[in-house]
Amino acid sequence: MCGIAGVLRLDNTAPDPAGVNAMLDVMSHRGPDDRDVRSFGSLVLGHLRLSIIAPSPEGRQPMADVNGRAWIAYNGELYNYLELRREQRDKGARFATETDTEVFLSTLLDFGPDVMNRFNGMWAAAVWEPAQRRLLLCRDRMGIKPLYWYRDADHFVFASEVKGVLAWMLSVGKQPELAEDSVQTYISTGLVDGLEETFFKGVHRFPAAHYLEIIDGNIGPFQCWWNLEERAAELREERGDCSGESAVEELRFLLDDALKLHSRSDVPVGVCLSGGLDSSAVAAHASSHIPGLHTFTSAFPEGEEWNETEHAEAVNTHFGLSGHTRMVDGACLIDTLPDILWYLDEPSLALGVFPQWHVMQLAAERVTVVLDGQGGDELFGGYDPYIAIYLYSLLQAGDLLKYREILRGFHGNYGQGRAMMLGREVKDIYRAGNRAGAPEGATELLNARLHLELTKTRLPALLRYEDRLSMAFSMESRVPLLDYRLTEFALSLPESLKIGPGWSKYMLRLGLDSTLPDSIVWRKDKKGFPTPLMEWMQGAMGPEIINTIKTSGLVVEFAGQITSDQERGWLAGNGSQWHLWRRICLATWEQSYLSRLASEMRSPSPIRRRYES
Questions:
Q1: Where do the CATH 3.60.20.10 domains begin and end in the chain?
Q2: What pTM was computed for the model?
Q3: Which residues of 381-395 are buried (b: 16+ CB within 10 A; e: fewer)?
Q4: pLDDT digits (tens, 9 = 90+) for 189-242
Q5: Which CATH class is domain 229-380+448-521?
Q6: If you count Cβ atoms within 10 Å of the first and of the last residue's Cβ in the chain, which end, N or C, has fewer?
């Protein structure tokens, strides 16, 4: 895990290295072990290193391949680098280091961008070939590792974090401007990471599973090198009819092999353990490959409703793991949130970033790499709305027998109230007339929704939080459930294997039934980082939060003034937590992130806002 930054002059003149150094300064948390900036004529390339594989000086970047053909600045891990290096050596290739970085570069140079389909890992990389004056930028399949870009008439700029790009702009006298459409979308929907443009005009997200070539100053088109829908369809056709039993066996193999690869490290590795099914699966399989495994959990003292420590402890006991728990005091939210938002760069959809921050802080006391369970819900259908979408899909297909079987299962497992609630949600989808947000022509509405949330909405947000909150403490976070083989496998499964009679994530539960305790596999009380915000609003914190929102120019402009009814409701612990959180987050971002950026850059005005006189 590292940070990368670069500036390319499109007219082939030399950029000032000071701009790249300014970028690295504001991202220094991403690489405490080493730092280097190199100039290559029209390109200045910078790198911050967090040493994970081959932590000796031989891993320093920017790194050249053994033949001197190209240089790379690389952020991420190539988990199957040992296998790829062995194959390359068998063909006569030479390597000067034991790093995955050199394998990535050498293989890419020998076989071209399409070889990334053989890479199992997470990355954002910049590769410079001086002889051709060619810059290649690329990003992993799911966008686990971040990359942002900006261009003007003379420069193409890229960095691992938004603040890196902003630092370059300020260093050359460019004043960043607010992207008002992005802010409005966030305050209306909570969506940030599915948008192409960030909160700043002209600062864009580099798309996942794409690469871009700039040759002799000419910027080519973004090219997609992996398509999840197409791969899932190919696997479905290759497999033919898929029985539940054969799918369960394949799932068990893929889970264990993914954890075996993701456990490779030359520094200590731990697991973020919430007590839910996904993180418990990661801990269980990781325990087979990591001796003396440590796990890290957070909880709130407000009561059992707000923590899952009982379930995390059950996993620790079952596998003999060393568990560590941090109780989180909500009173520190106001003081902590500015730091969280500094590292996130943009506001968050939900308050889960607050307990997640404390988990990462706890883990950093003992390990340098953490494994986390992100992706399980989106791959296997873990959230409640997915159940209603599947039921609606059954109605659309005219399968009333299956519809009744699934609904009866939820009635039996959770009671009549749950089944009635699901029935109402199906009616709501029908009345909305939007077929659960599925594209035209989609026959399996649940799989279409899962693909959307994996690539455009929910998961990209969770991956931003995962990367930034771990890097805030100079740790690498890995998400083994998003191993590309597991991802393709899950999306290739028929939706009938994801929601069973009375159970979400049915396939995953079956796959873990012989591994985890029944109290984890067949839990009925999914929580997922619940946070007692509305309870806190009834205490001393409430008026301070309301005042923060009221004094925010951005909130007033894009969401309007808080009404007296809203204020009374929130101070009484009522109303929409989602709407309240967006306002808290945006107000704090405005008042802390922008001022910190100005302070870091010694700039009096880091951004123009429409409402300023």
A1: 2-226
A2: 0.95
A3: bbbeebbbbbbbbbb
A4: 999 999 999 999 999 999 999 999 999 999 999 999 999 999 999 999 988 766
A5: alpha beta
A6: C
539/535 Cα distance (integer angstroms):
7
Low-confidence ranges of the chain (pLDDT < 50): 605-606, 608-613
Supply 403's token pair: 């519809």
Cα 123 off chain centre by: 12
The neighbour count for residue 56, using CB atoms within 10 Å, is 11
Which CATH topology does 2-226 take? Glutamine Phosphoribosylpyrophosphate, subunit 1, domain 1 (3.60.20)
Query: Angle at which helices 445-455 and 228-239 pack, to 10 degrees?
Result: 140
Alpha helices in 416-456 (DSSP H): 416-432, 445-455
Both tokens assigned to 66: 């053994």
What is the model's pLDDT at position 605?
47
DSSP 62: S
List, in sequence order, every residue forming a beta bridge with 150; answer none if it has no partner. 157
Residue with tokens 């880091």: 606
Ramachandran sector of residue 20 (left: φ over 0; alpha: ψ -120 to 50; beta: rest): alpha
Could you give the residue range(s) of every CATH 3.40.50.620 domain in the chain?
Answer: 229-380+448-521
The pLDDT of residue 244 is: 78
Q: What is the DSSP letter of 28?
A: G
Structure tokens at 171: 């260093």
The total of other beta-carbon atoms located within 10 Å of residue 409's CB is 17
d(C-alpha 600, C-alpha 128), whole Å: 30
Task: Give the integer Cα–Cα distance in Å for 459 and 446.
Answer: 16
Three-state DSSP class for residue 596:
helix
Length of the chain counted residue by residue: 613
301-324 per-position pLDDT tens digit = 988 788 889 999 999 999 999 999
